[in-house]
Amino acid sequence: MVAGHARYVRYIVIAVFTFFVFYFVSSFKYDKVSLPSGFGAGGATTQLGSAGGNGRSEPQQQPIEKPIEEPIEEPKSSEPKKSTQNLANTPLAMTPNDPGWDTDLVGTAPGPRMNATFVTLARNSDVWDIARSIRQVEDRFNKRYNYDWVFLNNEPFDDTFKTVTTSLVSGKTHYGEIAKEHWSFPEWIDQDKAKKVREDMAERKIIYGDSVSYRHMCRFESGFFFRQPLMMNYEYYWRVEPSIELFCDLHYDPFRVMHEGGKKYSFVLSLYEYAETIKTLWDSTKKFMKNHPEHIAENNSLGFISDDGGETYNNCHFWSNFEVGSLNWLRSKAYIDFFESLDQDGGFFYERWGDAPVHSIAAGLMLNKSEIHFFNDIAYYHVPFTHCPTGEETRTRLRCHCNPKENFDWKGYSCTSKFFDVNGMTKPEGWENQKD
Ligand SMILES: Nc1nc2c(ncn2[C@@H]2O[C@H](COP(=O)(O)OP(=O)(O)OP(=O)(O)O)[C@@H](O)[C@H]2O)c(=O)[nH]1
Ligand SMILES: *[C@@H]1O[C@H](CO)[C@@H](O)[C@H](O)[C@H]1NC(C)=O
Ligand SMILES: *[C@@H]1O[C@H](CO)[C@@H](O)[C@H](O)[C@H]1NC(C)=O
Ligand SMILES: *[C@@H]1O[C@H](CO)[C@@H](O)[C@H](O)[C@H]1NC(C)=O
Ligand SMILES: [Mg+2]
Fold first, then answer.
1. Is 173 helix (H, G, I), strand (E, B) or coil?
2. Mean pLDDT of residues grouped by 10 in the chain (436 residues)?
3. Residue bearing the CA closest to ligand 1, atom 22
4. d(CA 185, CA 144)
5. d(Cα 109, Cα 255) in Å, to the nearest integer?
6. Is 132 exposed, middle or buried (0-12, 13-18, 19+ CB in 10 A)?
7. Which atom of ligand 2 is nearest to the CA of 232?
8. Which is the closest atom of ligand 3 to the Cα of 299?
9. Other residues' Cβ atoms within 10 Å of the Cβ of residue 115
10. How far, in Å, CA of 146 to CA of 211, rounded?
11. How far apart are the CA of 368 and the centre of ligand 4, in A?
């Protein structure tokens, strides 16, 4: 009996002690935090970090004492992001030496959001390939920024496509069906002539040479994606294709780089176009230049696209499966005049003009040099080329997983070296070792 009594006393002492520990810990830790309405007093056991749902939360680096001013919202239900938020003073830090460089990349990125969206043209059958692209874009960048994503298709998207992509994108998703006029032969195209070209190209084994849909795709990306009703809601876009990869953490917002740096077009990879697909593209361009001298920028990048002062095209182009650019530039009179002039000449169907040389020639002639940006920090792969930043220190700092040997930048078939020369830019240390 005596031993049993002692045991009860011990239990009571432990219980009282435990109670005080709980009381002390809970009042100490949570007293100063004003929880958003809706959490109530019982919110004391709610971890702030998970309050945003979906694993998306307020910046975790915020001191816990700081009262939360606004109710935490699901990003998907928020209003279109405005570029003036209370964190607008956050500096745009692009290198570790800049004030405000974010080392940790934890939680929602501070700073303003631009009026921008990702955009993907895809078929329903592309769903799993675009899923992989989205996952990488989210992991390396957008999970901290929650930008929207617009999907475009010449057919209605099916439920699987919408469910899978919406579940992966941290921003809002929008799905648009392309109008017939933007995905068909214009009436002035001679169908017989176009068909003969396709048969001839098929015989000569020119890649996509026999494809009608590929031509609609190239014409759409050249002249129409930026004026789809859904795209009219934005100022900047980042184009993403199925099965691409991103190899490094992105520590800053490329849309902000565009906006604050006055940039209109950007690239990560450049190369020579397959000449057989654009035989008369430069003739059409010269005709346009003659008809519209007012659209040609004084300080342009002609030297990037022509080695003889504009007589011929050297076939250099920015690879357009990656683009971050200004939609307002593409919607400008200058660009539309250029596209319409090319479209009248029919080369999207009588040849196989790609949207990459079309965008590149437009940027090369109608933008100031300073308006075209090379995103060295965005490490990228689209079959068969890789952009992997030169310099081990950069790659380590950005936690890259690309093989530097695969970097295409300084190889013979890349035009990036020419871009650096034309712009008087210094090539990164060690570039010569990556030439072949
Ligand atoms: N909706 C739709 N999208 C298409 C069609 N053809 C191509 N696309 C999309 O247009 C983009 C470019 O097409 P790709 O087939 O990737 O062309 P590419 O990049 O030149 O060639 P790949 O080496 O095959 O990637 C991709 O985002 C495709 O998903 C089509 O007929 N319909
Ligand atoms: C975003 O840009 C579009 C196109 O320029 C414009 O119509 C829209 O009002 C802008 N939205 C915001 C929130 O600034
Ligand atoms: C032309 O470009 C150079 C260097 O890119 C720049 O210094 C100069 O201010 C530009 N001139 C105009 C008129 O844009
Ligand atoms: C190029 O820059 C000059 C001066 O910096 C400016 O006046 C001109 O409008 C710019 N051209 C384009 C096409 O933006
Ligand atoms: Mg592709």
1. strand
2. 59 57 47 39 32 36 39 45 56 91 92 98 98 98 98 98 98 98 98 98 97 98 98 98 98 98 98 98 98 98 98 98 98 98 98 98 98 98 98 96 98 98 96 91
3. 383
4. 42
5. 13
6. middle
7. 4
8. 1
9. 16
10. 36
11. 6
